[in-house]
Amino acid sequence: MINSLYNAASNMKNKGIFSKSEFKAILSEATSNENWNISNSKLQVLADHTYNWEDYTVIMKHLWGKVQSKPKEWRRIFKALNCMDYLSKNGAPRVVQEIKDDLYKIRTLQDFSFSENGVDRGQGVRDKSRELCELLSDPNMLQ
Q1: Residues sharing a CB contact under 8 Å with residue 55, sequence separation 6 or more, in sequence order
Q2: Residue 114 DSSP code
Q3: Domains: count for the chain
Q4: 3-state secondary structure of 55
């Protein structure tokens, strides 16, 4: 009996059903301040977790926190916007509604500015926030 339960759990893990700790690790990786992006397969794991209310609240709280990071953490802001974009298209419908409800927070990032060693690092954040606002303002783009 215990072996069959273990095998069933192993099969679930192999089929892409992640544990809470793995899910939270993916969420942290998705919004890290490192200079690389996360794979779409991992973003899809987050999108799948938006259908669970508890996980959904963890995801959105985390993303909103990263969107409001200090300008020197512009990569986190950009990656959080990128996650929101992906989740809007592939996650639970409530993701779209929540982001729409607080769209002003995204709109303010259209004027984001941060320079690092004389290089404008804010362009990606400005562009992504503009894209996300356009996406959420046009119902046809979400279909």
Answers
A1: 23, 49
A2: -
A3: 1
A4: helix
Residues of the domain holding 133: 2-142
User: Which CA distances in Å does 131 have to 9, 20, 82?
Assistant: 40, 31, 10
What is the C-alpha separation between 13 and 107, in angstroms, rounded?
39
- What pTM was estimated for this model as a whole? 0.83
Tell whether the model's pLDDT for residue 3 goes beyond 80: no
Q: Mind listing the pLDDT tens digit for each residue in 70-125?
A: 999 999 999 999 999 999 999 999 999 999 999 999 999 999 999 999 999 999 99
Helix (H) or strand (E) holding 116: strand 115-116
Distance between CA atoms of 101 and 35, rounded to whole angstroms? 30
Give the CATH number, domain containing residue 87.
1.25.40.90
Please, which contacts does 94-97 make with residues 24 or more away whose CB atoms are closer than 8 Å? 94/50, 94/56, 95/50, 95/56, 95/60, 96/136, 96/142
- pLDDT at residue 138, as a whole number: 86
